[in-house]
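The protein record quoted in full:
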Amino acid sequence: MNPEKKLTLNKITLNRPQQKIGLPPKITLNKQLDSRPQSSKIDIQPVNINWLVDNIQQENKLEWIQKCYIFFKDWTQNTECNDQSKEQILKQSIQLIDFNDLQVRLYAIKAALFGFTTLNLLDLLFQKQAKPLLRRPKSGSKIQEQLPSLLYQPQQVLAILQKTAQLSNENVFINLINDNSLSFVLFRILKLFTQLPKDQATTSQQLPYLNLIFIIIKNIANNQKEALKLLQPTYIQLIDNYLHSFPYDQTYEKDLLNLYTQITATLRNLANENNSVEMYLQNGIIKKLVISMVNYSNNYELILNTLRIMSKMSLNKECCEYFLQSTEAMQNISSFFKTYQTNIYIIIRASFLLANMTTYFEGIRQLIYYKFNQFGDILKCFDYYWTKEINPQQLNQIDQFSQSRAAWDFQILQSEKDIDALIRIIRLIANILTIEQIGLDILKNYSNEYRILISKLLKLLQKNTVISKQQEIISCTLSCLSNLTFYEKQTFLNDFEYKNVKFELITILGHFIIQNEDQEICCDGLRVLSNLSRQKDLIKQIMKSRISEGVIVLLDSNSREVVYYCLGVILNLLQDQDFKKKENINLIDYITQVLNDCTTNENDIANLGLKCLILLLDSNLNQDYAKKIETAVSTFGNVCDQVLQAKDNNELSNTRQLINQIINNIPEEGYSCMQPNCGRKFKTQMELQIHINRRHKL
């Protein structure tokens, strides 16, 4: 998902074509990543209780437990079974949880949990005193039958959940899941728990169960097919019901934070699916994420999970609007560049999130720079990862955060590199610099930091030159340089070191501009060059490096954007008389061809070409080229007139005025005096001869 790249140029008045052109700052939006494994489905035929009892010791444990699972799943349809038989098969199901076959264990878990949920589970788990459980009376009877109480104890349920949580960490186990029944029974338990009062005592009792349940659901959600089944309003609303909804108490603070961490980890896994944004918006999850940022910004794992969700959601503008409503949350996220500077996982996601938000909203750019005063910390964070990338030997600090996460439960984090953090930080910096007031403030009050930043971005370009493999870092570095150099109209006086940096930058820009691998990188490089070419002392270097010759050749490009930016560079270079004198004939050939190819929908390109031609007109222009210019602009003028006759168009009217100015200023055909150091022109041969006789014959 990329924002529109249409850019506007500083206006150039008709009578002052010598005014220079600067390309305004560009905003970039990040892209999304992540993928996961899949699963398959198996059909199981139901049986009656007698078959289960008769075959309880059969060798084929998988067949038996699969049918037992179906029986317990449909317990309400088997009310006529005697309690002794039910107890017998439930005991066997629990025993099979420790069987050596993973499939058997999975079905045993599901069978046992379904069996327990058919009982009065809340009384079972949270009764103050042990008591036998009562089954509902049979039809026509008023007598409640006691079920055996030794089997149904809280420790049994907790033990099953613990074993399931351990198994669910194994990819093999998760891939064996072939329907949503395990998730279904877990959410059935969660639904039952919502009936409990949310006082401190009850909360303390249920937290161990909830933690285990959400660990299992989190791991299940890491399977794509299972995750799609979980992205249903009923399930998401239940999850929302448990996130940030319990009273705080120091006695169970650790368990509560663990619960919120597991819930956000579940939401993080579900956020990989396409419809997660809509689900989270509709069911209140987005608001809960903001609460995490406000209340738990010091809890590393909870914050990392929340940032991973928010960064994915930040590709949606509506989600960003919700985030932006909480200034406190935004300030906490901005502070991470200082608090978690050495934590690559936090930094990648914080900069990813803020870069996307600064794409959509100007207000957050100003908040970060002015109200939060965090731009300096962002620059220091950039310096840290820049040093790790360019000069790692200079860092003696050990990244304790990264070491502590080496065995974290999502392997994708381990593949993230320092360059990934740099890319996202640079994008954020580039977006903040789109505010002109901020850019000018940095240039005026932080000129040293400004120059250092440009020199470090240059080093990144010099290290990363392979476009096919390093496209992302090259593109965002060039974009940031473009936004930075936009505000600098002239080189810092007497700073020869910085001037050399500019010379080196011009040299490396040639590598990214004169290539046909990536048009976007070519355009980004041209934007930087256009800003640099406004400075007279740099034009000579641009000519010396011969990059100007390449820019002229690129006018023949099939890319509309490439031609547009090339014309912007050339318009600035034409302020230099040496460039104009050297390239005028060559430029006329290319620019008139551009005009011949232009339509009225491309008048922005045509206007730049016309302004270049105005600067190329002089009295010494070869008559053949003068006619070539006149033919090209007249032809395009006729096309403009046809459109203007049909309807008013202010942009085309301005184009027509440029055309008129060129036609009026084209030198008339005449006869030049060929005597040394003369060169005067006359309308007729007779006038020329009179001049020669008077001035040059003694």
Notes: The radius of gyration is 36 Å.
